[in-house]
């Protein structure tokens, strides 16, 4: 089986003004199917740039990138768009849902741009299926402003899943959420990962990274640490513990 | 097809989101297209009315006026010089092939009276064939005869207005009409024609034999003009040429000198009359084009604003796999939808305006279907032309920058 991600000596240089900025300086990374990887690092470490490269939103200046067996480092804009559509599901910090558009239609969005086109009824069925995975079937016709942050992020996860991608890419997915909701979202990720979905998540929160299986730490555009998570947290257990703590101070019934 | 429908749905939703802005943007198109449709309708109506009026003069007519339009570069006006003689008219009838009938004409205006009533009107002297030639039948009584003309009898055929003014409620036939003090017997009443395009009352007229008019009313020996009828449309131009050469010969005009008369076919008169309305139409079409361009710029402006406002949405769409072309198509569809809905409303508004003018001003309005199709296509084209730049700008956005846009 092919590695989902295979980066070899990938570099990214931004030519801004007179100085060249080396955002990523020679990263080699291999992620196998079924992994759950956290990419960590302070701001300016190059983790966002790496994320954009992995997500096919940007192209590397040097090096090669095999995504699910396809060399994407030489593709043009439209081909990259198709790769994003077929192989990658994005989850963003700010949810990035279309406002005044129902949850269902938000989830259908990637199917709208599929080649070859997908029939309307199938679009609907697949979107409802994806909403079912994140447990939001009953909110299908709600608009984002009628949903809580956690629910919005679940809609975004459903949208990321709808095209059955090889890779789910999450950029600070808990950055805008409170701690309990964050754990809930991590629970969704852990469940998806158990079902065989490969996840890569960028985060700067160490406790959130504890829910993954492997942590990659970046500094100055290079990978400095790449290790398996030792004491892996389970979202279910953590949630249970949180609930008990809340009951103790009578925050929750 | 499915994709186009989906894109159209997105476009309509985006337009609904800012209803006021959408309506204001469309207004430019609505006014532009509405103006074109109304102007074309009015212009066409005027043109057809003028043509109908000139056609109602009769068939295959050639008009010969005394005097030249330009003599030595100076406009002298038709009919001022008095160079046409009765003999000229007879020579045209006799010598020019293809000429069926002629009617020599003189014209004056003056007071007419009957009983205690009096009226100021046009007094026109014509030949006896005038009524058939001009397709202007006498509906009551009869016309004057060849005999009346030859004898310069004091008989008159009058228009409906004269009857209404001088013989209200009476049978005018056989009554005495004093034309400039000379007593004439009314022998017939002309079929009413109504107002001309220029708003003149065509029924305000007294027709008498041209001989009577020359001898008894005007005291002149020269004609003002000669109406000539050719046998067929094909004969019009040869006959016109023949008349010119015949009259030049009779008037001893040496080569190189200007004619002292003017010969026009009915078609030339119609063309001259419609030329003016044509110029007007072009002018109005030009103004309409300017307003379409202004409307288009309005659309471009709003689309640019829309692209900026929705940068993040564009980023999201690109992240989930929309190609540049998809984004281009989406914004182009929005611009074209905007301009086409504006165009359709404009067409309806233009037709409505035409109808109102038709009803209020009694002005015939004719809007050719072709122009409606053209207006529709032009409004679509405006959308494509002015929507392209903003749409292209949207499609060229970098997904990373677009996603980060606040």
Q: What descriptive keywords fit this protein?
A:
heterodimer; A: 253 residues; alpha/beta; Rossmann fold; six-stranded mixed β-sheet; four-stranded antiparallel β-sheet; 8 helices; 10 strands; globular; B: 406 residues; alpha+beta; six-stranded mixed beta barrel; two-stranded antiparallel ribbon; 13 helices; 19% strand; elongated
| Helix vs. strand class of chain A | alpha/beta
Given the helix and strand composition of chain B, which structural class is it?
alpha+beta
**What number of structural domains do the residues of chain A give?**
1
Shape of chain A: globular
Instruction: State which percent range the strand residues of chain A make up.
Output: 25-35%
- Percent helix range of chain B: 55-70%
Looking at the structure, the CATH topology of chain A is Rossmann fold
The name of the CATH superfamily of chain A reads P-loop containing nucleotide triphosphate hydrolases
Q: Unreliable runs of chain B, pLDDT <50, ≥5 residues?
A: 71-80
- Count of DSSP strands of chain B: 14
Low-confidence stretches of chain A: none
| SSE topology string of chain B | HHEEEEHEEHEHEHEEEHEEHEHHHHH
The overall strand count of chain A is: 10
| Shape, principal axes of CA atoms of chain B | elongated
| Strand order within the widest beta sheet of chain B | 5-6-11-8-10-9
The CATH class of chain A is identified as: Alpha Beta
Number of helices of chain A: 8
Let me know the largest β-sheet of chain A.
6 strands, mixed
Task: Please tell me the overall pLDDT of chain B.
Answer: 87
Give a description of the structure:
The complex is a heterodimer of chains A (253) and B (406). With 253 residues, chain A is an alpha/beta fold. Chain A has one domain: P-loop containing nucleotide triphosphate hydrolases (Rossmann fold). In chain A, 36% of the residues lie in helices and 26% in strands. Chain A has eight helices and ten strands. In chain A, helix 3 runs parallel beside helix 5. The N and C termini of chain A lie far apart (49 Å). The model of chain A has no long low-confidence stretch (mean pLDDT 91). In chain B, helix 2 runs antiparallel to helix 12. The longest helix of chain B is centred in the last third of the chain and has 44 residues. In chain B, the strands form three sheets. In chain B, strands 5-6-11-8-10-9 form a six-stranded mixed barrel. In chain B, strands 2-3 form a two-stranded antiparallel sheet. In chain B, strands 4-12 form a two-stranded antiparallel ribbon. Helix content of chain B is 57%, strand content 19%. Chain B has 406 residues and is of the alpha+beta class. Chain B contains 13 helices and 14 strands. Chain B is elongated and about 100 Å long. Chain B folds into two domains: 184 residues, no CATH class; 167 residues, no CATH class. The interface between A and B is medium-sized, with 28 and 22 residues.
